[in-house]
What we know:
alpha/beta, Oxidized Rhodanese, domain 1, single chain, two-stranded antiparallel ribbon, 5-stranded parallel β-sheet, 143 residues, 52% helix
Amino acid sequence: xxxxxxTEFAANHMLLVMALIAIITLLIGGExxxxxxxxxxxxxxxxxxxxxxxxxxxxxxxxxxxxxxGHIVNALHVPANPADAPxxxxxxxxxxxxxxxxxxxxxxxxxxxxxxxxxxxxYHLKGGLIAWQKEALPLSKNN
Length: 143
């Protein structure tokens, strides 16, 4: 493919080219934001390693009914209001904290708020509880 064909394709399919540029921009922007924030995403296997070797604390930020229906074993339930987080998590400041939600979207923002409140070792469970379940890892239920 030469440059003339590429420019002709771009001219004939401007909408596709703009969509490609937008997607690339979003991907790069998300990666840059992730690196700047200092929040590392962990896959479920990495989270288990941190729990077992570094005594990491799992924090479930979902609503009460979702937490009661099933959560990661020994996870602390700290619902989405980050104003309450320092009180509930204060004694764990020196330990790694892994935050998760249902799909892993809201917990990334929660991690940033914890970082701003002075928590140093904050991690985000990539894919949230759904990724955990896909790996067939254990859950605990409140009765």
